[in-house]
Amino acid sequence: FPEGEANSYINLAANYLVLGEPERAKDHLLAAEGMLEGDAWFRWVYNIRLQAKFAEYWMARGDLQRAATYIAASLELARSTKRRKHIAWAQKLLGDVAAMEERHEQAVHDYEAGLSALKDHPCPSVQWKILLSLANSKESLHKSDEAYRCRALAQELMRRLAESISEGRLRTTFLRSKPAR
User: Which residues neighbour 60 within 8 Å (Cβ) at sequence distance 6 or greater?
Assistant: First the structure.
């Protein structure tokens, strides 16, 4: 199934980005892109993620202008298909670019827009990441109380996610892991 293989390449790219190895991520992104070009089935779902991961790749490389181009493509695809989780993630990425450029007011606006997209359709696995980024921008704006509230909400979401893990050892590992700030 080409779409499953393409999704696997996107997942591998995400892992390499987290590990700080963007060049290895790029190889997998290009492989996913090639697979998606050849198969139209479910391309729209994986292409949203592919555009977002390319944005994250370019952010890791420090090319924020190219990242913004991929974010815009991801956001447009997500909006046109009403994929709220992906809309929220694209808004988070916009906030990340703004934060990297030290435009923290804009970052706060973008992060809040991402959270707003999930208001009636919660997605804790995305929300807690947005909340941590929002907390960091609030902290940069010297709004410590608001930053504290955002971090507390993120921790509560992580606790609830952990409760959904039935295997005890895995749940403990998840709870002990330190989330990226």
Answer: 17, 20, 22, 25
Query: How is residue 23 written in tokens?
Result: 């060049």
What DSSP line would sit under 25-71, residue for residue? HHHHHHHHHHHHHT--TTHHHHHHHHHHHHHHHHHHTT-HHHHHHHH
Q: What is the pTM of this model?
A: 0.86
Both tokens of residue 102?
């030290």
CA distances from 50 to 7, 55, 73 (A): 8, 9, 10
pLDDT digits (tens, 9 = 90+) for 48-88: 999 999 999 999 999 999 999 999 999 999 999 999 999 99
Q: Which amino acid is at 8?
A: S
User: Rounded CA gap, 118 and 98, in Å?
Assistant: 21
> Residue 135 phi/psi, 5° resolution?
-60, -40
CA–CA dist 111, 73 (Å, integer)? 18
Using one digit for the tens of pLDDT, what is the confidence trace for 143-177? 999 999 999 999 999 988 888 888 888 888 877 76
